[in-house]
Amino acid sequence: MKVLLTEMRRGEAGKVALLSGVAGVWYLLSADAATSDWIGWWNQASIKVQVFGVIVMGSLMSAAAAWTAGRARRTRADAWSDTTPRGGWAQAVLLWAAAWLWSLLVYVAMAAAAFQRTAAVSEVTAPVWSPLVLGAAMTGLQIAAGVCAGTLLPSRITAPAMGVLWYLVFVLFAFLPGVSLARLFPAIDEHWDTTFQPHTGRLLMGALWCGAAALALLALPALVRRASLSPGPLVAVPTVLAVAAGGALLTFRAPVSEPFWAVRAEQPAEPACVTEGRVRACLWPDNRHLLPQAREAARAVDRAVGPLPGFRHDFRQTGLRLVGPDSAELPVYQPVLDSGTMTEAMLSATLPSRPEGCAPHVLPETDGFPDAFLVEAVVNSRAKRPTPYYGDRFAKALERVLAAPAADQDRWLSTAAGAVGACRPVPVPPR
C-alpha cells in the first residue's frame, strides 16, 4: 500500500486527473437546466458522466500513464528497475493502479455533481449505476494501454500519441455505429430518455471485458521484453476472461434500430396523468416533475378544442401505449420543459394525422398552403398561442374563421378535423 501511495504522489497521473476533474465538474455544473438534455433524467446523467470520463479523461489519463511508464527507460534507469523484487507485470499493475485510482476519485466527483443536479429537478430518486461501472472499467483499459505503450515505446512522442489515438478511435466508431468492434471500446454517447433503461447484463459484460483486457494487456511488456520474473501462468486468468467477455459482446445482437446498450422500458402500471376538462395527459412516472406544465398545457388545449369532436383529447408521452383512436403521442425530448413548449406539443398532436399516402389539399383562401395549416392556426389562436405568418391572404382567412360566431367556428373546426383524418379537403372557412 505504501508503494502504491508513493507512486500516486510522484506520478503525473494525479495532476492530469485533477485538471480533468476540474474541467468535468465545471462542464456538468455550468449546463443550463432549461436547455439540457440530461439534467432531470438519471439515465442521461449517468451517460453524460460516462462519455466525458472515457473520451476526455480516459484519453488524457492514458497519455499520462504512457509518460510515467516510459520514464525508467528514458532516464536509462530500466536496468536498475528490472532488478526489483517485483516482476514486470507487477510493476505495470502498480503504475496502472496508481493512475486508475486517481481517475476513479475524479470520476466519483463528476458523478456526484451530475446526480446532484439531476436530483434537484427529478422527483424520483433512482440513480443509474451500470453505465458508470462500464465507463470506469473502460478508463482502466485506456490507462493499461498507456502503460503498455509507454513501457515498450518510451519515446517522448508516445504519450501525446496515445491521447490522440484514443480520440481518433472514438471519432471513427462514432461514424461507424454499426461496427461490432465498437462494442469493445465503449464510449456510449446516446440519448436515453425515460423510454429506455440500461441493459445491465451487457453493460456489466462490457465492464468485465475492459477490466480483464486491461490486466492481460499489462503483462504484455514483461512478455515482450522477456523479463527475469515472468508473469507466469496467472496471466491466463484475465486473458481467458477477456476472450470470453469480448466474444460475448461481439456475439450479442440487438433488434434493428434499437440501441445495443439499452432496452425499451416496460409499460408502467400507473403513468403519471393529469386531467383538465375533456383533456388528459399522461407521462412516464420518472417525468412526474413535469405534471404542473402538463396540467397548464392540458388546460389550454381544453380551452381550444375540448368540446369539439374530431380532435384528439388523450395525450401519452412517447413510449407509453396509446389507448384508442382518441390518443396521441406526446413527444418530450428533454427533462425540463416550460408550459408553452408542452402546450405547443399537445396542440400539434391534437389534430388527427392524414392517412399514409394522403397528399395535402390546398384551399384557395390559404394562398397555396395546405388546408391543415389553417386548422392548426385557428386552434393555436383559440389557445392563445402564437401562429406563424404565411402571408396576408392566409391571415385574412384566419381572421374570417376567428371572427365567425362561436357555434359556426366550432362546427367548422370539427368538420375540418374529420376531413383531415379522412383525407378529404377542409371545408371553406365560414363567412
From TrEMBL:
Judging by the UniProt lineage, the source's domain of life is: Bacteria
Signal sequence extent: none
Q: Which residues form a coiled coil?
A: none
UniProt keyword terms in alphabetical order: Membrane, Transmembrane, Transmembrane helix
- Enumerate the transmembrane spans: 49-72, 93-116, 128-153, 165-185, 205-224, 231-252
Protein name as annotated: ABC transporter permease
Q: Identify the taxonomic lineage of the organism of origin.
A: Bacteria, Bacillati, Actinomycetota, Actinomycetes, Kitasatosporales
